[in-house]
Amino acid sequence: MTISNRALREGTSPTPSRTDDRESTAAVRLAGVNHEYGTGGGFRSRADRTVTALEDVSLTVEAGEIVGLEGPSGSGKSTILHAVAGLLVPTAGTVALHGTDVTTLSNRQRTRLRRERVGIVFQRFHLLPALSARANVALPLVQAGVPKGRRRERANRLLEQVGLENRVTHLPGELSGGERQRVAIARALATDPDVIVADEPTGELDTATGETVLEALTDIGRDRAMLVASHDAETLAVADRVVTLRDGQVVSGER
Ligand code: ADP
Ligand code: MG
Predict the structure, then answer these.
(1) What percent of the chain lies above the pLDDT cut of 70?
(2) Which residues contact ligand 1 via a Cβ below 6 A?
(3) How do residues 143-160 score in pLDDT, each as one tens digit?
(4) Half-sphere exposure of 65 (CA within 13 A, CB side)
(5) Residue 120 within any structural domain of the chain
(6) What is the position in ligand 1's atom list of the atom closest to the CA of 248?
């Protein structure tokens, strides 16, 4: 049986203002985004205390599209992904998911939107070491209030989809790097999000292992809007389109 959390999501999403403007209803749309990190402390000038990470970034990802983000270390890739995931609110500009501007939401609404609608895959897996593969995958469903039986069933199914049906009760420490990342991908898909952000998902893996991880990501992530940041040409090759960043600015790839 296929379990979908779309039904669960209906009616439980935040209800911020939404425009019906066609332009704004891309799965992901950043417009005029600037971000400065405060570097904290000291009595120096403002310019010394802040780092401009993004400058006037505009970027659109349609449903079903995989967009790669490339650029040297420090060019702003992770900052864009964090802004899309609602993990940070940029200093200026808008970040809309299906027309909902996440920058105007309360922290609570933004957290909820992230938990329900965005799947995040990190370079270093970020699994909880004391929990089994299945419990890690089911964790977002605990937060979403899904009953235990359905959580187990959904987590089993996702682990099967990433080829880990024989690793369900293993702890992260008992798994290889590639297996851990596939658990993380299954977890990212737990709430059936329509947006996936993956930050250097193969960064810790050798080429062959990276390939199995990319296969899992593009297979179970299919039909969603996906942003994949990477240095690696083979990883970027899964993208329909690659956007290049330099010093926090988009230099090519955006229409
Ligand atoms: P990338 O992912 O492409 O390596 P990032 O988005 O991580 O780039 O970083 C963009 C810029 O912002 C860099 O100059 C980086 O040093 C800076 N930066 C990133 N995170 C922070 C932070 N938490 N505090 C201060 N500066 C940061
Ligand atoms: Mg980064």
Answers:
(1) 87
(2) 37, 39, 51, 53, 71, 73-79
(3) 889 999 999 999 999 999
(4) 17
(5) yes
(6) 10
